[in-house]
Design a protein that fits this description.
The protein is of the alpha+beta class. The chain has a domain of 77 residues: S16 Ribosomal Protein, Chain: A, CATH 3.30.1320. 41% of the residues lie in helices and 22% in strands. It contains four helices and five strands. It has a five-stranded mixed beta sheet. The longest helix is centred in the last third of the chain and has 30 residues.
């Protein structure tokens, strides 16, 4: 029988309260469990005692092969009972496929506009200017 140390929700609507329990993985979330090991009240302020754990029983179940869920493992790591490896997902911060397509299209439009502007500047620099000739003609007429 595969065991998990997980959260079972209690409390009323919009007022969550969780029991930390050992349960068979096939049992429903709020259904049958083997033993209650603690509680978590997320409604309390962060500096209050939100998590209560029965450390002795948790050690017993961990030694018997129960695996904690990620959230429970965070609590156990804070209490110093078990070690949780830090996770790293660099792709999570990347924009989605459609957003990447829009960004690429915008960059391409900017590059085309910059190339067109550079061509216009080069053409203006290579074209002969008529303004210097006009003052010379005016001086000759005077």
């Amino acid at each position: 029988m595969a065991l998990k140390i997980r959260l079972a929700r209690a409390g009323s609507k919009k007022r969550p309260y969780y029991h930390i329990v050992v349960a068979d993985v096939r049992a429903p979330r709020d259904g049958r469990f083997i033993e209650q090991l603690g509680s978590w009240n997320p409604m309390l302020p962060k500096d209050a005692e939100r998590v209560k754990l029965n450390e002795e029983r948790i050690q017993h179940w961990l030694s018997n092969g129960a695996l904690p869920t990620d959230r429970v493992l965070r609590f156990l790591d804070q209490a110093g009972i078990a070690k949780r490896d830090t996770r790293n997902n660099p792709k999570k911060a990347e924009p989605g496929k459609k957003a990447q397509e829009r960004i690429a299209a915008a960059r391409q439009a900017e590059e085309e506009a910059a190339a067109k502007k550079a061509e216009e500047e080069a053409a203006a620099a290579n074209a002969p200017s008529e303004e210097p000739a006009e003052p010379a003609a005016e001086e000759a007429a005077s």
